[in-house]
Design brief:
This is tRNA U34 5-methylaminomethyl-2-thiouridine-forming methyltransferase MnmC. It comes from Zunongwangia mangrovi. With 223 residues, the protein is α/β, with parallel strands linked by helices. It has one domain: Vaccinia Virus protein VP39 (Rossmann fold, 3-Layer(aba) Sandwich), CATH 3.40.50. A hairpin with a 2-residue loop joins strand 6 and strand 7. The protein is globular. The N and C termini lie far apart (39 Å). Bound molecules: S-adenosylmethionine.
Length: 223
């Protein structure tokens, strides 16, 4: 499918898919959305709530690597093992135009970290910084079979409008099984059908205020 780079409301860029009229991030602000949904409500919450000093994170799907970059920066007080699953990797020329290092305060460090994240081999864990390691897995979400492995999941699939098959009980059961007890899943989505699918597989689900431009989001915990 054709992919175009566009600017979002907070000045940060994202990828737009014209055929689906869908974006990789919120049109209101890619950076604002990632910071609110995944860093504040996911990463910061999990560290504080469960007194974590080591975290294993799964991202659905890795896409541009923006969430991974922000996690390496804003999660630097803990040791993080990050797994990003992605079936359709973003191309180097697209990453260059997205220029995500420029959204962080220390451009040179951010650029080196971002480049390294994209240069490492797929399927192998590699140290990106002294306390952040990354494993990129090129496969579909449907192929995930991990058990009791992760403390936190960033569930960042395209919306149910375009990929309803990714917001089902089957997929959330895979997510539930892949989390440890007290594991947390965060997503930008807030639909009732999504919340019910999460609850049906055993999650305890909260509705939280969403990022700018979106009223609510969901956080699910495997109690
Ligand atoms: C909303 S975008 C993710 C944005 C990403 N978190 C970021 O910060 O750039 C959804 C991602 O899921 C990937 N994807 C879509 N369907 C998939 C599938 N069935 N299995 C694996 N990846 C898939 C897309 O290629 C895309 O990168």
């Amino acid at each position: 499918m054709e992919r175009k780079i566009i600017n979002t409301g907070d000045g940060s860029a994202t990828i737009h898919i014209p055929e689906w009229n869908e974006q990789y991030h919120s049109k209101h602000g890619a950076l604002q959305e990632a910071m609110h949904v995944f860093i504040k409500m996911g990463l910061d919450f999990t560290i504080a709530e469960f007194d974590k000093f080591e975290l294993s994170i799964l991202e659905i799907g890795f896409g541009t690597g923006l969430n991974a970059l922000l996690t390496a920066f804003y999660g630097s007080t803990v040791k993080i093992d990050y797994t990003g699953v992605e079936a359709y990797p973003v191309k180097p020329e697209e990453l260059e135009v997205l220029d995500y290092a420029s959204v962080l305060p220390d451009f040179d460090t951010a650029e080196a970290v971002f480049n390294k994240m994209h240069q490492i081999d797929w399927e192998k864990s590699a140290a990106i910084t002294s306390n952040f390691s990354l494993k990129k897995q090129e496969k579909t979400f449907q192929e995930i079979e991990d058990q009791d492995t992760f403390d936190l999941i960033y569930f960042d699939a395209f919306g149910a409008r375009v990929q309803p098959e990714l917001w089902t009980e089957d997929i959330f059961l895979k997510m539930y099984n892949s989390l440890k007890v007290n594991g947390v899943l965060v997503t930008y989505a807030a639909k009732g059908s999504v919340r019910r699918a999460m609850q049906a597989v055993g999650f305890t689900v909260e509705r939280l205020p969403g990022p700018p431009g979106k009223r609510e989001m969901l956080r699910a915990v495997k109690k």
